[in-house]
User: Fold this.
Amino acid sequence: MMFQDKVILVTGAAGGVGHAVVRSFAAEGARVAVCDLDDGASQTLVGELGAQGFLVSGDVTDPEIGDAMIDAAVDHFGRLDVLVNGAGVIHVGDAQSTSPAQWRHVLAVNLDGAFYMSRAAMPHLIASGGAIVNIGSDFSFVGGEQLVAYCASKGGMLLMTKAMALDHAKQGVRINIVCPTVIDTPMVDSLARQLGNPADEQREIYDASVPTGRMIAPQEVADSVLFLASDKASHITGTSLVIDGGVTAR
Ligand SMILES: NC(=O)c1ccc[n+]([C@@H]2O[C@H](COP(=O)([O-])OP(=O)(O)OC[C@H]3O[C@@H](n4cnc5c(N)ncnc54)[C@H](O)[C@@H]3O)[C@@H](O)[C@H]2O)c1
Assistant:
């Protein structure tokens, strides 16, 4: 098993991608600390994992809570090998329709949260020779209409990944980012609501937007996360793995 005896902390664990990531690590023998704002869904997931799971639910936008969640996971499991920064929110709006509070919220969750969690995890990852995998987006590379805050957050995450990878390479910590196009998760429902479209119509639009003809499945993102976190990626750091069915090949 690829992650036997390893300890993983996943933020956004109760979300569509988070569920697939947590279950995939657990299936490979890992012990997993589950972090999300959604307590109920997190508790259910932890219950499913049995002794391999541990609940550290909390808000990644608060650096003190971030420190406490990392400490709790390390106290419980004795080490930390991998941090997956998956917590994320999306807001539909341009510069005029995005309020300062909406802008701040998206940046706070998607970018600040990933930084605070990475910062808190770093001493433990240095001790274990571990890795961080960030969940970016195709909007880490290209702009998207009506997604100014989201694109800023995911573009920032890409260069944060690269800068941190350089800073910590000699300390043996690898830091990479996966960049999926639209994934079939509850975030698509959030987008449909914000755009005022029925969810099934929104899914058809997104399926048609991908050259392969369908959105990415959460499991396909999890597979790439596990690869980058594993020893099979032992000399890969500071890079992005694009999972987009060809969207950015256009
Ligand atoms: N769904 C997509 O189309 C898509 C495409 C590319 C990238 N992504 C990225 O993938 C990641 C996972 O998204 P998803 O599609 O699974 O969405 P999701 O909405 O299903 O999951 C996101 C999770 O993050 C949690 N969260 C939000 N704010 C938080 C906070 N402050 N602290 C802790 N947890 C918080 C939510 O409770 C939720 O469970 C996100 O970073 C997202 O930006 C999603």
